[in-house]
Amino acid sequence: MNSTPPMARMLPIVAAELFEVEAAFATPYKLSKNYGTLAITRAVMLKLTDADGVEGWGEANPMQPFTAESPAEAAGVLRTTLLPALLRDANPEPGRIDALLDALLPDHLCAKGAVSMALLDLMGKRLGVSVATLLGGALRDSLPVLWPLGSGSAEDDIRVIDERAAQGFATFMLKMGSAPVADEVRRVAALEARYGARIKLIADANQGWSRVEAADFMAGVSGSRLAFVEQPVAKNDLEGMALLAAGSRLPVSADEALTGLAEAGRIASLGAARVFSIKSSKNGGPLRAQRIAAVAQAFGIGCYMNSMLEFGITQAASLQHAAVIPNLVDAGHAFMSTLRLAEDPTDFSAQVRNGVAHLPRGPGLGVEVDEQHVRRMAISSLRLGGQS
């Protein structure tokens, strides 16, 4: 038993290192017509070191046009504005720093989220507890994981579903928006005819439809067992989302439309979604994402834990947050990102077994980061503070 007492308070951050990293997908991923086919993903990884030498890791996962900022822009604002403010602060409590950075910049949620993740990781390590404990305490220690299916045909889907179902996956997200709506309706019908209730399906158009196309799809699948339909129309068309949500028994999910707390309030008050798609990086880190989940709970909205094609740091932050949310939807959640990448410098993949993500047992985010692997992957890096 470790008899070392926990370090009870935060100390100043004395060094910050930024790494812009890139990795290929094992298989290219075809999304809607708005996003095309993805072959690589980029992220900004952040290592913070405090005056005791304790380290915390964070990650930003911007992806244009899905997010307003790019990885280079996230790294730039971290370098010029956010990290200098953090390094000047004598008491870097995560909540205080979130508020400080929000006062400095109203946007750049992905960049601010990396700081928030790293500080929570560091605080958890200092106290010897998980981030889930810092967020209020875990309600669960595992979650089912979904597997995504790129835009394509039912025949394409069946090959992947059969393979992944044998590995324990029971929820599958169908990317849509590239093919005609009638084809997508037939795709859903074919998969449900083959698999029945053995699997759950989610349809995600990634803003790929007009109001008319979205309404046609919702009508075409009205008798289906789809768990929900994600972001069927443009993110700024909340009125259109509200009309779709009111006219269908199938839940509509807000993804691209859901960024910060203000957007969460507008979506909820308009009745524009019955599911919130929460992404720890896109929403600005676990503390900001937790406030969005609280809005959802107040309005009777379910939460689906989604991902931004992430590496293991963000995946771990999202899982730590997911563990404390009482109003999760009854379906698989997006903790498969690292399984789809050619490489990841963390051990998060070990937490996903037989289609289930298990909450790490270690302090902080609970994942080990191979710093030398991060450095090998980096296409750019920068150090602020400390010794060069």
Most strands sheet = 7 strands, parallel
The CATH topology of the largest domain comes to TIM Barrel
| Backbone shape | globular
- CATH domain class name of the largest domain: Alpha Beta
Task: Give the SSE layout.
Elements: E1 13-30, E2 37-50, E3 55-60, H1 71-88, H2 94-104, H3 109-127, H4 131-134, E4 142-144, E5 146-149, H5 154-165, E6 171-175, H6 181-195, E7 200-204, H7 211-220, E8 229-230, H8 238-247, E9 252-254, H9 261-270, E10 275-278, H10 286-298, E11 302-305, H11 312-322, E12 352-353, E13 356-358, H12 371-377, E14 378-385
Parallel strand pairs: 5-6, 6-7, 7-8, 8-9, 9-10, 10-11
Antiparallel strand pairs: 1-2, 1-14, 2-3, 4-13, 12-13
Helix pairs in contact: 1-2, 1-3, 2-3, 6-7, 9-10
Task: Give an overview in words.
- This protein is of the alpha/beta class.
- It folds into two domains: 13-129 and 368-385, Enolase-like, domain 1, CATH 3.30.390.10; 134-358, Alpha-Beta Barrel (TIM Barrel), CATH 3.20.20.120.
- It has twelve helices and 14 strands.
- It has helices spanning 71-88, 94-104, 109-127, 131-134, 154-165, 181-195, 211-220, 238-247, 261-270, 286-298, 312-322, 371-377, and strands at 13-30, 37-50, 55-60, 142-144, 146-149, 171-175, 200-204, 229-230, 252-254, 275-278, 302-305, 352-353, 356-358, 378-385.
- A seven-stranded parallel beta sheet has the order 5-6-7-8-9-10-11. Strands 3-2-1-14 form a four-stranded antiparallel beta sheet.
- Helix 1 (71-88) crosses helix 2 and helix 6 (181-195) runs parallel beside helix 7 (211-220).
- It is globular, with a radius of gyration of 20 Å.
